[in-house]
Write a structure and sequence with these properties.
The protein starts with a helix and ends with a strand. The protein is mainly beta. It contains 2 helices and 28 strands.
Length: 423
């Protein structure tokens, strides 16, 4: 036998001896087969997991506040099956896969879900009581403005002589904040964390925690229109004394253009450098390309009502009563007319302005996916007053400001094809 081969065999033998010695010296290192749970133990383990918070509620909900559809588990991690019954009937509909669809009750209602965990001949049942929320928006209200985050999930709305309403689940449920004021407009950053709202003969109110707390900013004035940059740092607002701006989320303000009159509606590019404005009472559509320091009377329209700007500031849209919808471009500063002539009251657009949705008083909601070349009507006929949408115009919120009958906010989650009244 050659020396190298002999040394190799000796080395392997030594290693094996070392391993065997280690295993024998440390008996607790011996490998044991995996423990098999009995059916009773499987059921007990999966029921314990269910009781510790495994109902599958939406992130924004708790057992004491359920307003969004959710998914119940139908199997346990240890191998059991889970079946469900509900009492009373009519509020929750449970599908075969565990999906739960909520039919909102007229008031907060406690619902009992009974879950049965089973494996083989073993089973165990338990009751889970949740509180399904009734309507979280007022039945009627004089809505003044609505805004949404870029993903359409965070929504905020202001009304005349009421609080600020905020939703974190796309309008499925709402919570109210602040006190009743003469709110005018509200605007949001892309992430929905920075919100700014104007109140007439009052202050600008800013929230940097998605609407939970609000702080008065600037000085008291006849504040009306407001716009917020994508990152929430730049805010532009208008009052009877001029146009003001902040570059630090509302902490400090400077006048950009004084003694100009008030803009009823403002819209800004992502960096808030390009701004469109419509004066109270209508007339011209005004354009600023330097953050509000100077303004150009771009086009005249009686009763101009709403404006929209692309994120890069290169494309514009505007509405006016008794007029067609206006489409403009920054470089050319020219406008074209699209759609029908009617009493348009507001407009929103995707970040590139290729998708447009406009509302009219006494009409339906109209959407275009080709920069205004063609339009499709949807939704009920109503005295629509305004509209807001997310960055790709797939999620939209429109409102009717009626204090006596149909003062509601409607939502579309399919680019305007269908609409649902929010509660």
């Amino acid at each position: 036998m050659k020396l190298g081969k002999a040394l190799g065999i000796m080395a392997i033998s030594l290693c094996l001896c070392t391993v065997l010695f280690s295993l024998s010296a440390c008996g607790n290192l011996a490998i044991s087969p995996e423990t098999t749970l009995s059916d009773t133990e499987v059921v007990a383990a999966d029921m314990a997991a269910l009781k510790s918070g495994g109902l599958g509620l939406a992130d924004s909900d708790t057992v004491d506040w359920v307003a969004s559809d959710f998914s119940l588990p139908i199997s346990g991690s240890k191998g059991s099956t889970i079946s469900w019954t509900v009492s009373p009937n009519g509020i929750l509909t449970i599908g075969l896969g565990g999906g739960v669809v909520i039919s909102r009750p007229t008031s907060d209602t406690s619902v009992t879900l009974t879950g049965t965990v089973a494996k083989g001949s073993a089973s165990e049942s338990a009751n889970f009581i949740i509180k399904v929320k009734g309507p979280t928006l007022p039945a009627t209200a004089v809505w003044r403005s609505v805004c949404t985050s870029a993903d359409g999930k965070k929504v905020a709305a202001v009304m005349y002589n009421g609080p600020i309403y905020v939703s974190a689940d796309g309008g499925a449920s709402w919570k109210s904040y602040e006190t009743a004021r003469n709110w005018q407009k509200i605007a949001s950053s892309d992430d929905g964390h920075t919100l700014a709202a104007t109140a007439y003969d009052d202050y600008i109110y800013v929230s940097t925690d998605a609407g939970t707390t609000w702080t008065p900013k600037a000085s008291s004035s006849t504040w009306t229109g407001i716009a917020v940059s994508s990152d929430g740092k730049s805010i532009v607002a208008s009052s009877g004394s001029g146009v003001y701006a902040s570059s630090d989320s509302g902490d400090t303000w400077q006048v950009r253009f004084s003694n100009f009159g008030s803009f009823f509606s403002l819209a800004a590019s992502a960096d808030a450098k390009t701004i469109l404005g419509v004066r109270v009472g209508g007339s011209y559509v005004y354009v600023s390309t330097d953050g509000g320091f100077s303004w150009t009377t771009s086009i005249y329209r009686s009763y101009a009502s709403g404006v929209a700007v692309s994120d890069d500031g290169s494309a514009f849209a505007a509405t006016a009563a008794y007029s067609k919808i206006l489409i403009g471009a920054k470089n050319a500063m020219t406008w074209s007319e699209v759609g029908d002539s009617t009493t348009w009251t507001g407009i929103t657009a995707s970040s590139d302005l290729k998708k447009l949705t406009a509302v009219a008083s006494g009409g339906q909601i109209y959407s275009s996916s080709d920069s205004g070349a063609t339009w499709t009507a949807s939704g009920p006929s109503a005295n629509w007053s305004g509209i807001a949408g997310n960055s790709d115009a797939s999620v939209l919120y429109a409102y009717v400001p009626n204090s006596t009958s149909d003062g509601l906010i409607y939502a579309s989650k399919d680019s305007g094809a269908s609409w649902t009244a929010l509660q």
